Amino acid sequence: MSLDNIPDTPHSVGGTNGDDNGADHWLVRPDTIRKLWIAFITTLILLVLADLFVEHHPHFGIDGTFGFGAWYGFASCVVLVLGAKALGFFLKRPDTYYDN
Amino acid sequence: MTTSLIIPPAMVLILAGLTLPLFARLGLRSVVLVVAPLVTLWQVLTLTDGIHLAGAFLGQELILLKMDPLSRVFASVFSIMAFAGGLFALHQKSTLELSAAYLYAGSAIGVALAGDLITMFVFWEVMAIGSTIVVLSAGKSALGSGLRYAAIHMLGGVLLMAGVAGEIASTGSVTFDAMDLSTVPRMLIFAGFLVNVGAPPLSAWLADAYPEASWSGMVFLSAFTTKTAVYVLIRGFPGTEILIPIGLFMVFYGIVYAILENDMRRILAYSIVNQVGFMVTGIGIGTEMALNGATAHAFTHIIYKALLLMSAGSVLLMTGKRKCTDLGGLFRTMPLTCAFGIVGALAISSFPWTSGFISKSMISDAAGSEHLAIVWFLLAAASAGVFLHAGIKFPWFVFFQKDSGLRPPEPPLNMLVAMGIMAAFCIGLGIYPKPLYDMLPYPVDYVPYTGAHVVYQLQLLLFSGLAFFLLLGLLKRTMTITLDVDWFWRRPGKAIARFLDRFGVYTWEWLADAIVKGATKAHDALYRNYGPQGIFGRTWPTGTMAFWTTVTLGAVVILSYL
Predict the structure, then answer these.
(1) B485 has a chain A CB within 8 A of its CB
(2) Residue of B nearest to A48 (CA)
(3) Chain A residues lying within 8 Å of B368, measured CB to CB
(4) For B408, which DSSP code?
């Protein structure tokens, strides 16, 4: 019933791995991805610059400094991913581990 | 108030659940599934504050139905959840699952409206039964997880019951109100609550059991157990400081395990623990703003988590696949499911203009206002981590990533409508939070949308996004699981059980063997003496008889003279 709403159903079941000569969805074309990256980086730069135009009410001081959210968010994620990888090194098992 | 005429809202859903098989026979299953939660919601929203139903039991005055602002928030979001979940699950083949789900939802409302410890405990246990059946009705594959789930919740129930009994014995009162951890019974009650909230050390039950439920079952499961536990903690233990480290542990445990996980619904299960961790931290902080934040976050969380699991459930139903390594590129043929999933993902990440932003930031700001620097900085890092592990990871690996070659169609219309309703809540409350703020237990003096706050949150999230894409190589999914504390009862525990089993069998066999051998020996001895060839079985000569008679008579004579 809802199939009528789908704007783009180019393939039936069993597509290819994205290298069918530009016939794939526009969203996954290298050109689009490059544009998305440019838009994303521009947004990031503008967001950091926006710190100059808002009035901060920091609780502790450092949280009101220029670009705090940006570097703190980025650094937190790097630490979390590396920490998770380190833990995974010891605790990862094949997903058939509990299947006798 | 004509208390005698009131049907408790919990009973509407419980009765709907219990009679559902009957209505299914009459072809009215869908009607009951949609109408019962709406009736419940209407009841919850129209009940005035105060005690509406009480009765005596075992010499105690029980308050079966009591309404106040805190109860109303939880009971109404549980009703909304039952409605959306029921609508989403209209095509679920297993009536048993839906029957159990409504029993489960109804008893969650029962807990939220219970005015005393005994009523709370009874509904608490019915919830455990209902939820276990929801897990088990997914079929054979869920049997192990379902039994482990039941075992953990029985343990929680035992702790709670011991605590409630002790509390009544020591204070003589069944009142359920704010307590401290000054006595052993209260510690037991607290421990029982912590089991259900997904706190360490038993938190693994959640990610073990929920993802084994059916495509619709997990939508229900995500909402009630952990959030009723949040409710009872807000009611019973606000400002209990130990909850702060417990909550922070849950927050980071959820993120780290979700980062390593490959199963899309297990990612979301770990992120339930993560989100509930924010609420538990808020309850531990215990100020009015923090408790408001925890309450509001429970409300918004139930809705966006259900939305995420509906999106994942649709993918599971339409593809039969649940691992990120098997999925990817589904945005092509499931654009609506993808869009709804992204709305849920943005809301869980507290993106500005979504419901998560207006609730979670109250908890962080409460930590800031109390000058709890470590808590504040850890919660900020965790907010970034939420975007990483759920906000981007879930939509990216399921709907984008690579082209898996799968071209599933969108799910049926009722599922899309259910997702649409939840997505509307996520965005609606994000843009206009006043209706939710007005429901909260304490007056809200909080403005979420300031320039600084929006810019800070967007920086935090979008730079987390940057980190995600730069570290994508490290985040690549592998066909692995990550060992959790459930290892202890699934491996050594199992080995011990097997050993005891074998030990028992050996002991029994040895015992049985010894008895048989002993009996045989006794029989042989008797046979040797009394058998046809035995000394007592022989025909004795008369002389021997005369001799022994003489000896006996002589002995009698001698003895009589002594």
Answers:
(1) no
(2) B459
(3) 59-60
(4) P
Q: Is B174 inside any structural domain? A: no
8 A C-beta contact, residue B324 and residue B472: no
| Cβ contact A51–B455 (<8 Å) | yes
* Distance separating alpha carbons of residues B184 and B140, to the nearest angstrom: 40
Tokens found for residue B308: 């995420």
In a domain, B302, yes or no: no
CB atoms A51 and B412 under 8 Å:
no
Instruction: Work out how many domains chain B is built from and give that number.
Output: 1
B260/A78 Cβ within 8 A: no
The pTM for the full model equals 0.87
Residue B523, domain extent = 492-561
Is B403 in contact with A57 (Cβ distance < 8 A)? no
HSE, side-chain direction, 13 A CA sphere, residue A85 = 12
Residues in chain B: 562
Check: complex ipTM more than 0.85 = no
Q: Are B68 and B123 in contact (CB under 8 A)?
A: no
B264, B318 contact by CB (below 8 A): no
pLDDT for the residue B169 = 93
Could you tell me if residue B503 is inside a domain? yes
In a domain, B266, yes or no: no
Question: For B6-28, how does the pLDDT look when each residue is reduced to its tens digit (9 = 90+)?
Answer: 789 999 999 999 999 999 999 99
